[in-house]
Amino acid sequence: GEMRLSVAAAISHGRVFRRLGLGPRSRLDLLRNLVTALVRHERIEAPWARADEMRGYAERLIDYAKLGDTNERAMRMADFWLTEKDLIHKLFKVLAPRFQPHPGSYTRLLQIPNRDGLDRAKMAVIELKGNP
Amino acid sequence: MATLVVLFSPLPRLRGLLQRCWGRLEHGLLPGVSGGHSSPWGPALAVQAPALLPQPVNDTSESHEAPSLLDSILWMAAPKKRRTIEVNRCRRRNPTKLIKVKRNIDVCPECGNLKQKHVLCGYCYAKVKAETRLIRMEIGKKEGGPFNAPTVETVVLYDGEKPTEKDEGKRIIERPRKRPSWFVQN
Prior knowledge:
heterodimer; A: alpha+beta; CATH 3.90.1030.10; three-stranded antiparallel sheet; 4 helices; 45% helix; globular; B: mainly alpha; two-stranded parallel ribbon; 4 strands; Ribosomal_bL17 (chain A); Large ribosomal subunit protein bL17m (chain A); ribosomal protein (chain A); ribonucleoprotein (chain A); structural constituent of ribosome (chain A)
């Protein structure tokens, strides 16, 4: 890889991860809540930046789930990322077989026209392919 | 000896004169016009115009803080001349070019509303959202408690539809209305 010549300045060239919420912990919590909601409801409205961040995490989670129920790492990942424990069952038993034939890209991200009330934020819809 | 005496005698007078001048300088800078030396202190007055008004109140306090005012003679930036309306117009109208015209507005083929090209149609999305809300309410009624996500897939059936061969082990959500045109059955 490239040299990390300690660019701690106000330049953010090439940074892939956005800064959401109050800090890194808060950002992870936010994304975890969104992932849980997506697995529960299969279609989520959220601000576009959060949905974009969440998309990568969700797809990697499904890849972990595809490894199988018995896999210890997969189970630990699912345990961390899904706060509602019945959704772990749903992830392994419903979503893994559903996305088994597809190699990747299990989510769809589309922009909604009307932004939020008063703050006019750019909203987006994330949904799992396969519909309710 | 005589020269020394002659030199000594004007010195204390000079020093006294210098002291009195310096005292007048210190006190003369602060009150300003009322000191009477308006012409040599003209530019100093223009610089310290804001200090004119509070001067009768702040006289005693200012005499203690004279060095701080002398240091802060550099003052803040201020416009020298009024900006003419032509200059103002050039600044306000040119570079930002006054809200760019949007060319990416199209007509939605389904409902005929206007939409941006890369964005979903608002009306159609509102319809989808309302329908999903009703479906989720049905799911909620079927599940009962808060954390009862089922471990099987779900199928939504509308009026007059029967579960087919593919919908074997899935749980069925019934909706007592006609199938909406945009909802494609897999």
